[in-house]
Write a structure and sequence with these properties.
The complex is a heterodimer of chains A (180) and B (563). Chain A has four helices and eight strands; from the N terminus they run H-H-E-E-E-E-E-E-E-H-E-H. With 180 residues, chain A is an alpha+beta fold. The chains are: A alpha+beta (180), B alpha+beta (563).
Chain lengths: 180, 563
């Protein structure tokens, strides 16, 4: 009985070891932009769900050398992930998707220095990029980082969801339910 | 070789005992003990549900067809619920979903912590913490592994965080409510009502989360299964109600619940292990016992039922023993330091052994009848002779004969190298003009001279309580020298006397100790009671550091929830 109990107790944990679902890829692959060879990840779907009005969702097309993608923190109204510098051992760039851009302050130049934060406004959403000032990066690395930060159209994500679910249910509601 | 499976012990003196006694039976390998660890039928159901959930997760991870089918079913349910959305219903559902929010969980946690700390349910508190953390962190780990998005194709009206399967808020509220029930609600009717209320709260929360489309039905149900199965399993295996009952009564000592299941187990165990039929089991003298659950066991049937005395020991008593010995080491130092028992089996084996030594040495102790196993490594009965109609010495007529018997008992223990170490009125009984010494739990083989001396002084003080000091001293000088008596009284003062004896001397309003010392023709030597050792210093430091660490850990834990 003890062995059966122990087996049943750990079975749910074993289930988690099997792998990720079809849409999603775990770990640093999660927020990579879809390509011909790479499917839309569950993380991108979740980001799209976090801000259902956003027409585009931030993704990573390529990583600068010495950088990895940190954990995704997605919740209703906001999704965020970081690019982590292995050399500095901390998050260097924070990418945040919200419904609207935050008020002035973020992205403002300080003391005439170069901009460390910037925003991209998309239809129904805003993507904020914040570079941690404590992480000193060379200009080439900055360029590589900026070049690797990209956006994916919501329609691409919606199409991937539709294909994986054989059309139903879709990513977004097809009919407008009551929203009291 | 043939065997009649005769019991090791003789039956107590009853007419029926000599008649057809049941055969002693060896429990075959794999057969459950008389009182096995139980998780009950509901526990098995929840385990089965957990297994179903696990199988579903595996299918979700490996089968696109299954994932798509489940998504379709989930979506159909959510769409149906969404069709009912109205302003007032949405407001009501937001309220119904409040138990699964951070603030509500924090309140539940704080209330539970206060109750468990006030009522000193440390084991329950530890299980509460571990079960809560396993349920919540386990669910979170699963969501990260599953990577299943939030409900698709529907407007989500409530707040959410992270991937969807299983629902972490549902796992958290289920685990918190289950832990509350098993850690702070007494079993029986109160817990039954509690389960009903918890069920209503969980149903309301689940419905709310589905209505608001925060979770899919499968997400919520999987969270619920984890949140119920983990604490249920933890509490039923690690703090079963029969051994660690939740109680708010005044007498909350280490006494076990003598309910019908335990009585039935005792009957089976007596029949199979001692070859005795038990007709009744009743708690006996609970108020005088904190170290075990004392029982009077009737064996045989009809009017000639024999009586046995049994001390029921369990894990809780080992824990009490550990704390007791730690406290004595801290209080007395080298005089009283000794190692605690690390299992209940060893504790019972030791007491049975010293009782047999005392009995074989001819001391007036109950005849030992051996050990009965109820649950392996968890619960044992130490069985011995019962003294019917015996009265505590504090209520008995004490004459010179009784005084002599008491003093001779100490003399005999000195001669054979034993000490009782708990001589007090509750442990000295008088029956038919004979003195009986009971409770050998603290007895020791080859004790220190100090411990032997304390036995003598305590015996003399108990006897003097019911007679007078001069008379007891006069009789004592027949068996002990003046210097031995002086040493005994030098070693025995204040905390070295059992608290019951101290209390009774105080209520008498006399200084019995001083009166006997004053009558002695020799000066009493100086015997240091407080003796420091490296072990005592280290233990004292360890306790202080531990207390500081515990406070430093407890404060943030109390202020913040375990999640």
């Amino acid at each position: 009985m003890k062995r059966v109990t122990a087996l049943l107790a750990v079975a749910p944990l074993l289930a988690g070891c099997v792998g990720s679902v079809r849409l999603g890829a775990a770990g640093s692959e999660a927020v990579f932009c879809p390509t011909d060879a790479r499917a839309v990840s569950a993380a991108l779907v979740l980001m799209a769900q976090a801000v259902p009005t956003a027409s585009r969702v931030p993704c990573v097309s390529s990583l600068a050398e010495g950088f990895t993608v940190g954990d995704l923190d997605a919740r209703s109204g906001r999704a965020r992930y970081a690019l982590r510098s292995d050399a500095h051992g901390q998050d260097a760039v924070l990418v945040t998707l919200t419904r609207a851009c935050p008020p002035a302050g973020v992205g403002a130049a300080v003391g005439g220095r170069a901009l460390s934060d910037w925003q991209v406004q998309v239809h129904g959403g805003c993507i904020s990029y914040h570079l941690d000032p404590s992480v000193v990066l060379g200009s080439q690395t900055r360029t590589q980082i900026r070049a690797g930060l990209s956006l994916v159209d919501r329609s691409v994500i919606a199409r991937a969801v539709r294909e994986s679910n054989h059309g139903h249910p879709p990513l977004d509601p097809t009919t407008t339910e009551a929203n009291p | 070789v043939t065997s009649r499976a005769e019991p090791l012990i003789e039956a107590p003196e009853t007419a029926s005992a000599s008649a057809a006694r049941p055969r002693v039976r060896r429990r075959p390998s794999g057969e459950a003990p008389p009182l096995p660890h139980q998780i009950h039928a509901s526990g098995r159901w929840w385990l089965l549900l957990a297994a179903v959930a696990a199988a579903t997760w595996i299918a979700l991870s490996t089968s696109p067809t299954f994932t798509s089918a489940l998504e379709t079913v989930d979506h159909a349910v959510l769409t149906r619920l969404a069709s009912l959305r109205t302003g007032w219903l949405t407001r009501a559902m937001r309220v119904a979903g409040q138990p699964a929010t951070g603030v509500a969980l924090q309140v539940i946690w704080l209330v539970n912590v206060v109750l468990m700390v006030v009522w000193r349910r440390w084991r329950h508190l530890l299980i509460w913490l571990c079960a809560g953390i396993v349920a919540i962190n386990g669910s979170e780990a699963l969501t990260e592994a599953m990577h299943r998005p939030r409900p698709l194709g529907i407007q989500i009206l409530g707040p959410w965080h992270g991937f969807a399967t299983p629902s972490v808020p549902m796992a958290a509220i289920s685990a918190f409510l289950l832990c509350t029930l098993y850690a702070n609600v007494p079993a029986g009717r109160p817990r039954g009502i509690g389960k009903l209320l918890a069920g209503i709260v969980l149903a309301g929360t689940l419905l709310s989360r589905l209505y608001l489309a925060q979770d899919r039905p499968s997400d919520a149900l999987f969270g619920l299964v984890i949140g119920v199965a983990v604490p249920l399993l933890a509490f039923r295996l690690l703090a079963p109600n029969a051994v660690f009952p939740v109680s708010y009564g005044r007498n909350r000592k280490a006494h076990l619940l003598i309910d019908s299941s335990r009585v039935a187990a005792i009957q089976v165990a007596f029949r199979e292990q001692l070859g005795l039929e038990v007709s009744a089991v009743v708690p006996f003298g609970l108020e005088g016992s904190g170290g075990s659950t004392p029982l009077r066991v009737s064996v045989g049937g009809g009017g000639d039922a024999g009586q046995l005395f049994a001390k029921l020991y369990s894990d809780t008593h080992v824990k009490s023993d550990r704390w007791y010995k730690l406290a004595r080491t801290l209080m007395y130092g080298r005089l009283e330091d000794e190692k605690a028992f690390n299992t209940v089996r060893r504790l019972v084996q030791y007491e049975d052994y010293v009782l047999r030594l005392l009995y074989d040495a001819g001391l007036p102790v109950p005849k030992p009848y051996g050990i009965v196993e109820i649950t392996p490594e968890r619960e044992y009965l130490l069985v011995m002779e019962f003294f019917p109609d015996a009265v505590e010495i504090g209520e008995a007529e004490v004459d010179d004969d009784i005084i002599d018997q008491g003093l001779q008992a100490v003399r005999r223990m000195w001669d054979v190298g034993l000490a009782h170490r708990d001589i007090k009125p509750a442990n000295l009984l008088v029956k038919d003009g004979g003195l009986k010494v009971i409770d050998a739990a603290f007895a020791q083989v080859r004790p220190s001279p100090w411990r032997q001396a304390v036995d003598l002084a305590n015996m003399m003080l108990v006897l003097a309580l019911r007679t007078d000091p001069a008379r007891v001293l006069g009789r004592a000088r027949k068996y002990f020298t003046d210097s031995e008596i002086a040493e005994a009284f030098a070693a025995t003062r204040g905390i070295t006397m059992p608290s019951q004896l101290r209390r009774m001397i105080r209520s008498l309003g006399r200084d019995l100790h001083g009166e006997i010392v004053a009558m002695l023709p020799v000066r009493i030597p100086r015997v240091k009671i407080q003796r420091w050792s490296v072990r005592r210093v280290c233990l004292s430091l360890f306790v202080v550091v531990l207390a500081v660490l515990a406070a430093a850990t407890a404060i943030p834990l109390i202020v913040n929830s375990p999640i």
